[in-house]
Every structure is written in C-alpha cells, then in structure tokens.
Amino acid sequence: MTGSSADRTARTGVVLVNHDSAEDTVGCIASLEASHDLDMDVVVVDNSDSAQSLATLRALVGDRAVVLSSGGNIGYAGGSNVGIRHCLERGNEFVWLLNPDTRIEPETLPRLLELLADVPDCGVVGPRIVQPAAPGAPETVWFDGGIVDEAKAGETRHLHQGRELAKVSAPVARDVDYVTGASLLTRRTVLETVGLLPEDYFLYFEETHWCRDVRRAGWRVMVEQRARMVHHQRSSGALPSPYHLYYMTRNRYLFVERALGGDGEAALGQLEGKWLKNWRRKVAAAAPEWLDEFDSLVELAATDARAGRDGRNDAVSHVPWPADVERGEELAVATDKGTEVSER
Fold this sequence. Notes:
With 344 residues, the protein is α/β, with parallel strands linked by helices. The chain has 2 domains: 2-231, Spore Coat Polysaccharide Biosynthesis Protein SpsA, Chain A, CATH 3.90.550; 242-337, no CATH class. It is 41% helix and 20% strand. It starts with 11 loop residues before the first strand and ends in a 7-residue tail after the last helix.
C-alpha cells in the first residue's frame, strides 16, 4: 500500500487485532489491498497468550503490515489501543479499527472518508455490514447502525440486523448511538481529545461506551450505509460460548451504570427476561447437560458486576461449552481413525 513505506505517513492507519485468527487476518489485509484508497498504513496487533502466535503471524503477514505484540490477551480495547497508539505516533490522520473476519469492498474506505470530509463534526463513522449469502439463503444485514434504548435499561441492538438486504430501504447516512468495533473509523483529533477505548470491559461494550463519550464531547457518531463490507463472524455459533455469555451479561450491567448512569439491576433484569431467557431455551433444547454450567456463568457474571469487578476473568476461559465437548468427541473419533478434523 502506498502509505506503508517508511519515508511517508499514510492518511489512514488501519488496526487489526489478531487473536488466534492469522488466516482471517491475512484475508482482511488482502481485501484492504484491493481498496480504491490505498493511502493507508496497516498495523496488526497480536493479542494472543500463545508464544507461537506472533511468529506464525509475522511469517504469514510478511512486510504487508506492521505486526506488534500486545504481550498477551489484554482484551479487545487493550489490543486496539496498542495499534491506535502506533497510528497516533506514526501521524495518521484517521484510524480505522477492523475485525480480522471482515472483508472490505473497494469503495468502503473512500465512502467513509467522503462522509468525514462532508460532515466536519462527525467524529466516528461506520459502514453497513452484511453477512454473506449462504446456499439457499439471501444476503442479510448484520449492522446498519447501533442503537442504545435507555427506555429498556440500556438495551443495545443493531439496526436492520437479520433482514434481507434486498428488502431494506435505500442506504443513507444517519446519526446513531454507536458504531460497532468490527469496523470503526475515527479522526485522530477525536482520539486526542476523548481518549482511547476503555479497557476495563475486556470484551464487549467498550466501543459502545466510547462512542457515548464521543457524543458527549460534541461529535456526531454516524453510519454511512452506502459504504458496505462483509462480516464472516467466525466466532458465532448456535449456542453461546462461556466468554460471550459471561462478558455480555457482566458488561451490560457495568455499561449501564458507568456510561449511562443508570440502574445496573434493571439492566440485568431486562437481560434475564429476554436475551438470557432465549439463550437458555436454546441450550435446554440442544445441550441440556450444560444448563447447570450456563446458570453458574450467569450468576458469576451478575455477582462480579454487582461487586464492580471488571477486566479479564481467567476462570471463564477454561469453562467447556457444548461445541467444545462435541468437538472433543469428534477429535477422539478422528484420532482412532487416523484422520484430521478441521477447525469449525
């Protein structure tokens, strides 16, 4: 990319946080290299506890991007901030956070930058993010803007999520409550005045809280739906992982108290009556043997939230979940047969 040489600074610094997803990261870099705006520096932050991860990543990426180590898994915001600091030190005018499992289109960055040029008080902008079409299923919207519903104890949702792309109204630029960290473009002046992402959440709600701070500082937060990209969501599944269940529950409580000045107990009650209830029903149908573990994780999340405990919780990382159990059985069968089992 034109901005990657050592003798000049690119307009946009791109930050990818890699956590055991090197192949996805390389795929995202390839999509960046097809952009119609190549005035960018790309920095990849290895955010893994694995000692081998950094070497593997550097071998795969080569000189296509700067590869930094965070020193271990310090969470989404922690890893992102390592890359953001590098971009600020480099002198990039804009900083673009991207998930490794996203794929930009050639016009994604030009259209986002065009909006920032046209709307000088816009501090943060994100694109429309779609999920790719599957066999027999149409392309659907994953993100068209983030909404925080304070009337429902801080419930967050993605506009148009799950709707067929062909049935959604014509794309527009609009103000929103937050932009997802899967693709978030901001100005260096915003980062210099508002600060970096809050690291106390470890995972989930950090960009939602930060966008709230950006709006309080007088900047607009917008989504430009005419700019689009694809999100493959490698980490999604039919059942919740332990870390998704724990951090979403705990951090919803903390977000409502810390960012909204609201009632964390009301947030937890709303979450239990809808989001957690739906997940528990799915677990009961598909993996009833995991219900006790499910309930224990929810209780742990609530207890930690009430005590104000934040950051990383290593106990959650070691909890097996249904997909891991099934995969373990699959691996045992595969070992007996002398065959390999690929990652799901």
